Amino acid sequence: MSTTSVLFDAPGPRARLRNNILTLVSAVVLLAIAYVVIKGLADKGQFEGKLWQPFLEAQVWTGQIIPGIVATLEAAVVSAVLALVFGVVFGLGRLSDHAWIRVPAGAVVEFFRAIPLLLLIFFAQAGPATISGYTVSVPAFAAVVIGLTLYNGSVLAEVFRAGILSVPRGQSEAGYSLGLRKGGVMRLILLPQATTAMMPAIVSQMVVLLKDTALGWVIAYEELLNYGLKQIPSNFGNLIPSAIVISLVYIAINLALSYVANRLERRSRRSSKTTATVVGAPTAVGVGGGAT
Known about the structure:
single chain, globular, MetI-like fold, mainly alpha, 0% strand
């Protein structure tokens, strides 16, 4: 009996008919919503050529949109690397056998997970000057990176902790029986297996992190959203077309990120599989020592 037949019952004729009807109804509803939105935009003149003309000019892309994409990716990449380091350190800290490590690590993770990201960015920029009483200028880029690192790093710490705990206990026990210490078991046995299980959650959080760079707009960080919804509309008066174009750019970036991550996940799955050679039955040996 296959695993699919055990975990999933094939739908019968009535269930298939019901699923097809629900799919058709959902498609009709979505098409109706899309029609209403598009018609409303058309009635308001949002599809006039003059509003979309700026996006056909190379200067708009090279002078505003591409610099915004670069600034967004810079903040996202730096924040992602730091958040992964933060997540590994505090995720492992929460798994420590020592309470003086486990409890503070848990408190840090829960504290930063509970604070809205926008407040973390505000505190990162205005907090040092307020606390010290001196004029401390924190660049917008640094404030965005700090906020993204603390929040997403705390979420990733839980992802790492849950991923490591998802590995069957027998794996670590087998490592200890071979004489490995806890660090060796973690590095050689648990982490390689947990990484594959954690990859979808990590990729999902990286996509969230990339989109959250848009919050830098409120502290005047010149990223993609700042250019798309502030500078371009102020010059051409095309807010809705700008929002649509910027949304498509975000979608393209996130799809590219997901594609790369999926390729890495498939590669890691293939590399984790071991090929075994089927061992045949031993040949019979006759009385004289020869094979029969």
